[in-house]
Specification:
This protein is of the alpha/beta class and 338 residues long. It has 2 domains: 254 residues, Metallo-beta-lactamase, Chain A (4-Layer Sandwich); 75 residues. The protein contains 12 helices and 15 strands. It has a 7-stranded mixed β-sheet, covered by helices on one side. A 5-stranded mixed β-sheet has the order 8-9-10-11-12, with no helix packed on it. Strands 13-15-14 form a 3-stranded antiparallel β-sheet. A hairpin with a 2-residue loop joins β8 and β9. α3 crosses α5, α7 runs antiparallel to α8 and α9 crosses α12.
Amino acid sequence: MAGGSIAVNPWPGWPLPARLAARPSQPRHRPGLQSLLPPQMHVFVRDWLSANNVLLKSRDGHVLVDSGYVTHAPFTLELLRSGRGLSDAPLAKLVNTHCHSDHIGGNAAIRAAYGCPIELPEAEAPLIERWDTKALLLDYADQSADRFHVDAVLRPGSSHVWGDLEWRLHAASGHRSGALVFHNAEHGILISGDALWRNGYGFVMPATLDADALPAARDTLDLIAELDVKIVIPGHGEPFTDVAEALDRAYQRTRAFETDEVRVARHALKGLLAFTLLHRRRMPLADLPAYVDRVGIYRDINEAVLHLTPAALAAMLVAELGKAGAVRVAYGELLPAM
């Protein structure tokens, strides 16, 4: 029986052009990886602004995992309506691995289009219900999402049948305190959210601001290492099978973070600024010092750990992101490198 599908956006950072949106089935060829997925499992690899979408099909009702960023919601809906998506079929349920903007930003639009219930981690539900924009890292991090309501909660240790597959849910704190990973033991599949990427994991807060974050990230890696995992579907980046090597890289990063809180802080702020640039597409360089002084998460991390002037913080972020090839400067503006 043929495996599932992995469709990769060939224009990272941008929605597909309208003429191609109806056929997001232009993936790079991944026969080896696709053969590891059951035929009812379809992965839409997005970019670093929108988390990957995983569609689990079943005659009992189709389930979508994560919905991408709010500005990409129209494209997410195009993917769902495509041949590799649902075509004209209904969506039974939308579930989230955790509640950062790149994973929940399309929730409201998908509910409006399909009328489906939304289920998300139990620990995150109160934040959504009171729409705590600081705890959800929305305006606090200069990110956006349209408000929605929770219909049911997902509990660590519970099992669910989605796409005719049994998924065991595991707590995956660190990057997000209430996050979950979804594991299917039959096929050795892990939907990891931002708990494990091929090269690391999502940012963690410095210990001065959240003493539990880094130890929790290590505990999550230990958990994943104990599971039987043959293929990881990460929140960002393409699925991968070199799980042991990915875990080794993640452990190396964790060890480096455990000895250097400044490194943790700089890593977090660089990731946040790179994300913002993918959303905004450009930012006047002269405005950046005022920006990092105004947006709460930059200000709080800087005051707690880095102790730089806003101008020095802005200059450091631009220099290090430029060195990493993530941004470029042109005509007085900071732009994504791609």
